[in-house]
Amino acid sequence: MIKLIEKKHSLLHLAFHSFCGREGEILLAPLDVHFDQENIVRPDLIYIRLERMEIIRDGYVFGVPDLVMEIMSESTGKRGKTIKKLYERFGVKEYWVVDPVYRLVEPFMLDNGRYLLEAILTEQDRRTIWASTSLT
Description:
Blueprint: H1 2-20, E1 24-28, E2 33-34, E3 40-41, E4 45-49, E5 56-57, E6 60-62, E7 67-71, H2 74-90, E8 94-99, E9 104-111, E10 114-117, E11 121-122
Parallel strand pairs: 2-6, 7-8
Antiparallel strand pairs: 1-4, 2-3, 4-7, 5-6, 8-9, 9-10, 9-11
């Protein structure tokens, strides 16, 4: 199972890097994101735009990333709603949920302090969702 997750992380990194790698930094777990002293998370993938690189210090992220991505598993599925609310509360602009079992991606965009589901994407979807995101 660990090899499968590592492979999925690598594939996501490659797919994401092909578009956003020039515009910012893509970081993979394990890497802690410190919103404050009590709220520390470890998303599967983190994206930070170049103009905000100062939040990466000493091997950690201290502040709010532009995008976080979670790959669902048995353990993350149970805490998915709680972690989504935390990302929403701290103002993470985009939160993507990747479901490797059903092969879905659900990109959520922050709008007036609340996440809105932009789409439910399958592997057959070939559109570029970054065209409508804050990452471009």
